[in-house]
Design goal:
It contains three helices and no strands. By secondary structure, the protein is an all-alpha fold.
């Protein structure tokens, strides 16, 4: 019976890691969608001579892309190590 408990415990840990990968990936996608909303200020910012929104959009896009890639990588390795 102890072997079954150990197997169940390992599965719970692996599924928890896969869940966190999904959470990170979804948060990255939300940042990318929010970035699309901020693109409306992009042209206005350049026209006024301020580069605040330009840098904001670039930083948020890089962070969202990195989180999406990292979340998918983390989830993939959590699922593959379960096999």
């Amino acid at each position: 019976m102890e072997d079954m408990d150990l197997v169940r415990y390992r599965e719970e840990i692996q599924m928890g890691r896969a869940r966190w990968g999904t959470v990170i990936s979804v948060a990255g996608r939300v940042l990318l969608w929010m970035d699309l909303l901020l693109l409306s200020f992009f042209y206005m910012s350049i026209r006024d001579g301020s580069y605040f929104w330009v840098w904001w959009v670039l930083a948020e896009g890089a962070l969202g892309g990195a989180m999406t890639i990292a979340g998918n990588w983390y989830r993939y390795h959590a699922v593959m190590s379960q096999r």
